[in-house]
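FORM 7B - TANDEM STRUCTURE REPORT

SECTION 1: FIRST PROTEIN
SEQUENCE AND TOKENS:
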Amino acid sequence: MRNTMKHQLSLLTLCQSNKIRPSFWIQCVFILLFAFALFGPITNLLIWTVAETWYFPHALPSEWGLNIGTKSLILTVMSQAP
């Protein structure tokens, strides 16, 4: 028990010192990767909601619009009509 306490205490003092602190730029890279992992899929869904046509090699849709959403909304309303 006593040996474990010394080990935890020495690990705590090592972490508090600047010896193992990552550099500022490494921290920035990790924050940017985390933000991309969090907001990337949300952004992709938002782009897909307004994409009319989007072919493979293009980074963004070729045609933008709300025509597909309007068609699906009309079909949904018509299917629910008695």
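SECTION 2: SECOND PROTEIN
SEQUENCE AND TOKENS:
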Amino acid sequence: MFSLCVTCLLHVLPCSGASLTPEKLAALRLSADEMSLFTAVVLVSADRSGIQDLKSVEALQDKLIRALRNLVMQNHGDESATTFTKLLLKLPELRSLNNMHSEELLSFKVHP
């Protein structure tokens, strides 16, 4: 399930000196729908290698970010702008963790 992916990455691949922890993510009090959209934003990245249709990926990424922003605005009231900003600031570190996780999985396939 997508909503578990981000939390799993934080538990399985802790980075030394990482500023992002499961507790910090939980403190944002995201709904299951918000966490699912956030996870999709983390996973859909136009800067991945091997992408053949960059414009389509960028368009999908933009739609996901807009949907996440709208949902956060709807659910978090006065704190919505701060919550959305905090989510965006977590993207680079989570994408890095996702890439590390992907590399680990590939190494299992190559070296059983």
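SECTION 3: OBSERVATIONS ON SECOND PROTEIN
The CA atoms of residues 1 and 44 lie 15 Å apart.
The chain has one domain: 22-110.

SECTION 4: SIGNATURE
Preparer initials: ____
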